[in-house]
Amino acid sequence: MTAIDSALQPAHDTAHGHHAKPSGITRWLFATNHKDIGSLYLWFAFSMFIFGGVLALCIRAELFRPGLQFWQPELFNQFTTLHGLIMVFGAIMPAFTGLANWMLPLMIGAPDMAFARMNNWSFWLLPPAALLLLISFAVPGGAAAAGWTLYAPLSTQMGMGMDLTIFAIHIMGVSSIMGSINIIVTILNLRAPGMTMMKMPMFAWASLITAYLIIAVMPVLAGVVTMVLTDRHFGTHFFNAAGGGDPVLYQHIFWFFGHPEVYIMALPAFGIVSHIIPTFSRKPLFGYTSMVYATSSIAILSFMVWAHHMFTTGMPATAQLFFMYATMLIAVPTGVKVFNWIGTMWQGSMSFETPMLFAIGFICLFTVGGLSGVTLSIAAIDIQLQDTYYVVAHFHYVLVAGALFSLFAAVYYWFPKMTGRMYSESWGKFHFWWSLLWFNVTFFPMHFLGLAGMPRRIPDYNMQFTDFNTLASVGAFCFGLGQLIFFANMLHSLRHGKPAAARPWEGADTLEWQIATPAPYHSFVEAPDLEVGENGRIDAMHGGKHH
Amino acid sequence: MDKPPATLHDNRLLLLKLLLLACVMFVFAWGLIPVYDALCRLTGLGSLQRPDEVGSQRLAATPLAPVLLTFDATVQPGLPWQVRPLTRTLRAVPGEFVRVDYEITNASNRQVVGQAIPRYLPAAAAEYVKKLDCFCFAQQAFAPGETRRFPVVFVVDKNVPAGLDSITLAYTVFDVPGRS
Question: Where are the transmembrane segments (chain B) (predicted)?
Answer without folding.
Answer: 12-33
